[in-house]
Amino acid sequence: MTRRPAPVIISCGEPAGIGPEIAVRAWEALKSDVNMVWMGDTRHLPAGSVFQTITDLAEASDVVQNALPVLHHPFASAITPGIPDPRNAKGVIDVIAACVGLVQTGQACALCTAPIHKKALMDGAGFAHPGHTEYLSDLGGGGRAIMMLASEQLRVVPTTIHIALEDVPHALTPDLLRETIEITARALHDQFGIAKPRLAVAGLNPHAGEGGAMGRQELEWIADLIDQMGGEGHDLRGPLPADTMFHAAARAGYDAAIAMYHDQALIPIKTLDFDRGVNVTLGLPFVRTSPDHGTAFDIAGKGLANPSSMIEALKLAAKMARAG
């Protein structure tokens, strides 16, 4: 039998959410195409799941076409779908750390994380990080990590993320925008295999400020920064009016868009491809993808969860690992 590349490892995430069931359904869809391993407590997989426990990731390639390979990590308790148990919080955190270790040592080629529930982790284990990405960044050695939302139709990176709109103009600085552009361009080259990444940079204000009539950040520093970075070898265009840069003809002209704030980035991609968008963390020393949704406690265990985003996250993780 031809041995496949090292597997993508899936961290179980919050076991009372939809993570376990979408992992199984993603394996059913991709078992002939993507080598993968799920790490978590086997008790948390849906009843009737076809899985096989392994002790070494090298075994996955011989198992994956017939059963979901599982690295069993015992948790404190079984689950009730839709109701997080604080006793399991430490297990969720430990699995993430163990998965990162397996990627860093080359036993896995990439990490695909199922959704976590930050409050459950805080309540049950005193989780001190603002979110999943920050924890992964710390495990990877620190440094700024940024969020990309990716689909077949669009890749977009918000420069500022989870802050109030009124705070965006103050948080948005030349250094922050420069770093966002640099991290994005480097990741597109190193992890997506794009030799000369083309980036479109949105303006902050309506109509990119319209010559100062609707805001002056574009005139005062954004355009100058883009010009300066273009002179350093980056292929940039902008600042562009955000309302005209996401239609099909415009998207054909760039490999990723840099947005200035959360909704400017997420509205277009969720409109274009709501079910199949993938959250990619750029700036880490390893590949990490995740489905672009949460734990969905309201439908957990009911067989209603859509696995499309998990499927796309696994496919993209494997593709990025090959490109790197």
UniProtKB/TrEMBL annotation:
Binding positions for a divalent metal cation per the UniProt entry: H162, H207, H262
Pathways involved: Cofactor biosynthesis; pyridoxine 5'-phosphate biosynthesis; pyridoxine 5'-phosphate from D-erythrose 4-phosphate: step 4/5
Entry annotated with the keyword Transmembrane: no
Main location: cytoplasm
Protein family: Belongs to the PdxA family.
Misc note: The active site is located at the dimer interface.
Function summary: Catalyzes the NAD(P)-dependent oxidation of 4-(phosphooxy)-L-threonine (HTP) into 2-amino-3-oxo-4-(phosphooxy)butyric acid which spontaneously decarboxylates to form 3-amino-2-oxopropyl phosphate (AHAP).
Protein name according to UniProt: 4-hydroxythreonine-4-phosphate dehydrogenase
Organism: Roseobacter fucihabitans
Gene assigned in the entry: pdxA
